[in-house]
Specification:
By secondary structure, the protein is of the alpha+beta class. It has nine helices and six strands; from the N terminus they run αβαααββααβαααββ.
């Protein structure tokens, strides 16, 4: 944080950059630091042993991140929350139409959504190296194959959950069909409690108060 990069005005940088990005997939801690540096540093200064800032980010704060990224101009904001799963917030149909060739499969399904999906139960935990990148890959792979928003979140967490089972972040990958098999076999997610006003649990997802689009068919 004392480096040249750490001293940069990241919020100003993001205000210029985010409108040019259709899909934002930051980690919760990184984007919270970029957008609300003083709040991040305050949380960091009060951490207990073996705690991270992620452990102290509230549902309301994560939701604020999603809201602000959409307000800045991105179309899809998926925030990686580590062991707490994935939060996603999406823009209006008008903004999603601007994706062009990389369009959403169903605008009514993708527009104006707010969901939080828990991580899957991993077979064993070896290490988290690369799990965030794996989650991004799973999400984008499903996206380009025209999956629903809910399905893209499943593939994201499936890839991330498999990634933590190996030490190298690579050898878990047996392909998209393998992830499909695991998801369709009834793979269970870990218990996740979302304590926030207006949040409800439905169809395996936590549903935010700003979720207005339609569910997958």
């Amino acid at each position: 944080m004392n480096s040249h990069a750490g001293k940069a005005d990241w919020k100003a940088i993001l205000e210029d950059w985010v409108p040019l990005s259709d899909i934002m997939v930051p980690s919760a801690e990184e984007i919270f630091y970029f957008l609300y540096k003083d709040e991040f540093l305050e949380k960091k200064a009060n951490l207990g042993p073996k705690e991270g800032v992620l452990d102290h980010l509230t549902v309301k704060e994560i939701s604020r991140v999603g809201h602000d990224l959409i307000e800045m101009g991105t179309a899809i904001a998926m925030v990686k929350c580590g062991h707490r799963g994935l939060y996603v917030r999406t823009a209006s149909q008008d903004r999603l139409k601007q994706l062009g060739a990389a369009k959403c499969s169903d605008l009514e399904n993708w527009a104006e959504r707010e969901l939080w999906f828990p991580v899957y139960q991993e077979e064993k935990f070896v290490g988290a190296l690369g799990s965030g990148d794996a989650a991004i890959a799973g999400f984008l792979a499903a996206f380009v194959w025209n999956h629903s928003l809910e399905s893209c979140l499943r593939y994201a967490n499936a890839a991330g959950s498999m990634n933590v089972t190996v030490p190298d972040g690579l050898t878990w990958n047996k392909g998209f069909d393998d992830l499909t098999r695991r998801i369709e076999s009834g793979w269970q997610t870990k218990n996740l409690e979302i304590e926030g006003e207006g949040w409800t649990y439905e169809r395996g997802f936590w549903v935010g108060p700003e979720n207005h689009g339609k569910w997958e068919s």
